[in-house]
Amino acid sequence: MTSRRRFLKATAASAVPAALSAAQAAGKGPLIRKVEVFPTAVPFAQTFVIGSGPVGSSGGAGRYAYVRVEAEDGQVGWGETNTLPTWSYETLESVVSTVRHHLAPVLIGRSPFDQAYFQKQFDERLMPAISQGFPFAKSAALTATLDLAGKIAGLPLHRFFGGSIHDKIGLCYALSIDTPEAMARFAAQYKYVKCFKLKVAGDAGLDDKRVRAVVEARPDADIWLDANQSYRPIHLESFLKKIAGIAQIKCLEQPVKSVDWLGMKRARDRSPLPIALDEGCFSSYDVARLARMEAGDLVVLKVAKSGGLWGCQRSATVAEANGLGLLGSGLTESGVGLTAAIHLYSTMDLLLPPELNGPEFLADLMVDGLTIEGATVTVPDAPGLGVRVKEDRIRAAAIQLGT
Questions:
Q1: How far are the Cα atoms of 53, 206, 215, 228 from residue 87, in angstroms, in the given order?
Q2: Res 241: pLDDT
Q3: What is the pLDDT of residue 403?
Q4: 224 close to 357: Cβ distance less than 8 angstroms
Q5: If you average pLDDT over every residue of the chain, what do you get?
Q6: What is the CATH number of domain 164-392?
Q7: 3-state secondary structure of 97
Q8: What is the pLDDT averaged over residues 231-241?
Q9: When comparing pLDDT for 2 and 350, which is higher?
Q10: Is 313 helix (H, G, I), strand (E, B) or coil?
Q11: On the chain, which terminus has fewer CB atoms closer than 10 Å, C or N?
Q12: CATH assignment of 3-160?
């Protein structure tokens, strides 16, 4: 991206919130009067296993939280987060409690356009110690306010971030950990998918067989390896030697524990593949540390871990300013979270198709109006998220939490 293009993009991004603030000041923006959070069971259509453990099972259900904010005029905005304690520390119980008792009081009585205020107050009430504090809960709440603001202003969500540069986005599909043969069959089944995130599990010999089986089944597809923290640095070197020279492999994501920054640096120093950080890189401050330590080459963006869309955009900006590449991903969100990510990623040039695998693994995306053809998503252009949330389905699938 040229310097002039970056400048114009940044100017557009700053102009939109200013215009919205002016509209609100002129009395055009109703205030938030109600905030609700729904713990919800979302059914899985296929089993999904990663290096740190299972995400969901066929016929089972994931534990999701949906945030609903309502304005004085009755307009509604939605946000969402998955909860996966084996991936990050927030649980469904903590997200629901955090939104209800700590974040909702900040939102009620304010304009949904008060985005900087919300972020500042969230971080003052729930301090982002070292990196992030309750980012999944904050992300769901902020997405709901942005959806509402977009509906009030008549603007699609991507306009808040400078406007889309892509009308359609192809998705990367995840290959759940399984036998080499099963993973190869899955990859062969989806001929329209041009990039697979191939999950590996920390066993160099078996992971090598998984990689080679998939490469043989789909020689036309790019491969994005993801270890989900399953390797120790010393064992990783054996795996890297086994897969050396396979041109389809574009990068290796989070090979060692998220807290092991020195292990990541060792991996990066000895790896012929670009190394990407995910679980170990939540905030723009983490991105800056990654760049200073030279512990990786790529940053995996996720809206939820970033504390919301604004935090995710900040991470992308810091990454680009430090010469780091951008990858986009998600946490098997349903249609609300997936659509929010699509809006943001449509404003960026990612190095590989983003891995937003809700359409692949979930039996119900809990929204209508999202156009997906094969592995290609059309960026919505209706106000807010631009999709219709199945509120009745969300309420019907409520999870009863203990007191």
A1: 8, 23, 27, 8
A2: 95
A3: 55
A4: no
A5: 93
A6: 3.20.20.120
A7: helix
A8: 93
A9: 350
A10: helix
A11: C
A12: 3.30.390.10
